[in-house]
Amino acid sequence: MLPTRIPHGRTARRVEWAHLPPVVRAAVEGHLGGPVVEAESQGGGFTPGFASVLTCADGSRHFVKAASLKAQRTFAESYREEARKLRVLPEAAPAPRLRWTDEVADWFLMGIDHVDGRAPHRPWTDADLALASAALVEAAEVLTPAPAGLDPAVDELASWAGLWQRIDHPRAAELGALAARYADVVGGDTLAHTDVRDDNILVLDEERAVLCDWNWPVVGAAWLDSLLLLIGPRGDGLDVESHIARHPLLSVVPADDVDVALALVLGYFSVSADQPVPPTSPHLRAAQAWQRDVLHDWLAERRGWQR
After folding, report:
1. Which residues pair with 107 in a beta bridge?
2. Other beta carbons within 10 Å of 244
3. Strands across the sheet with 36-41, in order?
4. Taking Cα atoms as reference points, which of 44, 134, 153, 148 lies closest to residue 94?
5. Are 89 and 197 members of one domain?
6. 197 and 73, same structural domain?
7. First-to-last CA distance in the chain?
8. How many other CB atoms are there within 10 angstroms of residue 97's CB atom?
9. How many domains is the chain partitioned into structurally?
10. CA 182, CA 264: separation in Å to the nearest integer?
11. What are the Cα distances from residue 109, in Å, to 22, 208, 215?
12. Helix (H) or strand (E) holding 39
């Protein structure tokens, strides 16, 4: 287990309901069909945009995101892109549905089905891993072949392959050689979420799970999300190698191909963790550094490196 001081579930520094301009709040209430009487800001994630569960006077609950196209343009465009991608998901996908979008007073708004669930426990438990894993296997089946209009993983991850040339590491050459093979490994015809973390998963009724925040989906290997899911559980001390051996998708992936994907993602987190801490997301670099360290420890074990 790799200890962490990251305040899981409380990593975001978000705009609150009261901070939205009155004309924006009025537009949201128009879409929801009544006045908002309660707003519960969502603390997970690493973006400063508005993301709250809103309760209306009639008792209905809704999940709404919003960001200023002037003060938060990067995040507003990210929400716009998420909305575009949510529109192409089939109804059977284990994901909340997009209900509406709007643009008011230079704010981008989107309404998504409210899902009554919880994030996986941290540290991860075997039970929550099983539920999240089952959701990803279901998603891989439903999302193969991938909906049209989304970019292939081979293109979207191309910039990651050369990152090992910038990283000071005694095994940079070995890791770079692994990452360079990514195109032969991550390709496929399945829509992969690629941002599979505890704060993007909701457990429902202790029986199933759904995936949230579809900002970065790509068309790639059916097993890719199932592998990325394991970073958190591995860091929290679960036996992910036994999980891989029993997994319907991962168990048939050659060990070297798994290592290629891990080396590729390790390079990304190694570079990202060293960037300046953004004032709007004070826990982002710590979370990336923790995932970097988990991946490094995992690869060291898999490759038999001397400690």
Report:
1. 68, 104
2. 18
3. 36-41, 50-56, 61-68, 107-113, 98-104
4. 134
5. no
6. no
7. 16
8. 13
9. 2
10. 7
11. 14, 28, 15
12. strand 36-41
Residue 107's pLDDT is 97
Q: Which residue has the tokens 């579930």?
A: 9
Distance CA 4, CA 287 (A): 9
In this predicted structure, what is the pLDDT of residue 3?
A: 87
Domain closes at, from 87, 113, 139 = 113
Please state the length of the chain.
Answer: 307
- DSSP structure string for 10-28: -------GGGS-HHHHHHH
Distance, C-alpha 70 to centroid of its chain: 25
Read off the amino acid at residue 86: L
| Token code pair at residue 251 | 């168990």
CA gap 265, 86 in Å, rounded: 24
Mean pLDDT for back-to-back runs of 10 residues, the chain (307 residues): 86 89 98 97 87 97 97 94 93 94 97 95 97 96 94 96 95 97 97 95 93 94 98 98 98 98 98 94 94 98 88
Residue 118 DSSP symbol: B
Last residue of a domain, one of 89, 113, 137: 113
> Using CA atoms, how far apart are residues 259 and 223, in angstroms rounded to an integer?
13
* pLDDT, position 307: 61
Which two three-digit tokens encode residue 155? 């293109």
Segments forming the whole domain that contains residue 65: 17-113
Q: Count of CB atoms within 10 A of residue 37's CB?
A: 11
The amino acid that residue 138 corresponds to is: E
- At 1 the pLDDT is 87
